[in-house]
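ok posting inputs for the flavin-adenine dinucleotide job
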Amino acid sequence: MNSIWELETFYRNRNVIIIGSGFTGLWTAISIKEKYPEKSVLIIERNSIPLGASTRNAGFACFGSLTEVIADSQKMGWDKTLELVEMRFRGLQKIQNYFHRSDIDFELSGGFEILDSDHSLGMMDEVNEKLKSITGIPETYFLNQNKIKEFGLNKCDFLIENPCEGSLHSGKLLQKLLEKSQELKIEFLFGMEVKSVVEHDNDIEVHLPKGVSIKGEKLIYCTNAFSTEFLKEEEIIPARGQIILTEPIEGLRLKGTFHYEEGFYYFRNVGNRVLLGGGRNKDFKTEETTLLATTGFLQNHLEKFLKEIILPDQDFIIALRWSGIMAMGAEKTPIVKKISTRQFCAVRLSGMGVALAPEIGEVMSSMVYGQD
Ligand SMILES: Cc1cc2nc3c(=O)[nH]c(=O)nc-3n(C[C@H](O)[C@H](O)[C@H](O)COP(=O)(O)OP(=O)(O)OC[C@H]3O[C@@H](n4cnc5c(N)ncnc54)[C@H](O)[C@@H]3O)c2cc1C
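and the output
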């Protein structure tokens, strides 16, 4: 049994309960508190730190590459594709408005895409025309062949540059969001896994371990790839992403964020180290998992890619290897919606949640209390 002190403080009723303290949960809580400061907001997180995608990603302040935008438009049409691009663009602006760049290592060094055929170049003008109203730039994507040599890249026939993309330190951004949350008096319970949720006529109740339960008016799932138990109707496919990071490399020439094969490979410099992730398309079925682990097959594949394409003339030592879990679906649009009178969800942020989450927080806060 809990004490009166616990029941009247930590486990008391709240207006809003959010499950998940990754980027989506934090930005959503912040948006709600900024718009409705009188509402109490509690975030429940099962791990001692956010653990899924937000602390395990590549730290691209991700706008998206040319071939990715083309592939998205072919899968889901231009309207949805442009809506998503605009959301990312505005999300990146919001991050820069909220935090000093130096506090989160935000660098606008440009995004680059390696192409080994001129197939997509023919569509570049059309894509630029469509993106102009979002970025305000006539050429969001342009060919920059000079940089192939400057960066020391191998097997790169064409290099497309995009000045709207940058990189950041995901850990520092999360810590800043936590600081902002404290300022706004958002409350947290870390290390508590939500086991089940029961919606009643007058409230919603979440069940936690050791017989603890907490009631709220509204509940928001920000559980991304870990949502299938709660959101059985939705198409949420877990997608593990594996990463390697080198030790510092003297005289490293690579600078910026880089995409290859429609974003299936991504790499960047972290100071004078190289971070490389991806290759999921080489072993799709194994990587459809929520298990945080690395595999020999993909780790070797990534090392080979690093040696052949990124660092053909330099020796390197791998310092760290890790994995994180994304959430995917047939199309890239996140699932942001009301699912019952008191339950909402903001999940399936694909590989672009750093940029999408700030805007999703805005949408969710309007959805939860907008019509009251
Ligand atoms: C390898 C990799 C590289 C990536 N690179 C980039 C990139 O460079 N740029 C970019 O924009 N995006 C990138 N992404 C995607 C981005 O990281 C995600 O879209 C984003 O972090 C999703 O945030 P989230 O808060 O929705 O999910 P998560 O960060 O996964 O947070 C969900 C949280 O819910 C918690 N949770 C789950 N179930 C429960 C429960 N029952 N009770 C309590 N808590 C629970 C989890 O512990 C977790 O902390 C990458 C992702 C991966 C995996």
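notes: The radius of gyration is 21 Å. The chain has two domains: 4-55+172-235+332-369, 107-165+237-328.
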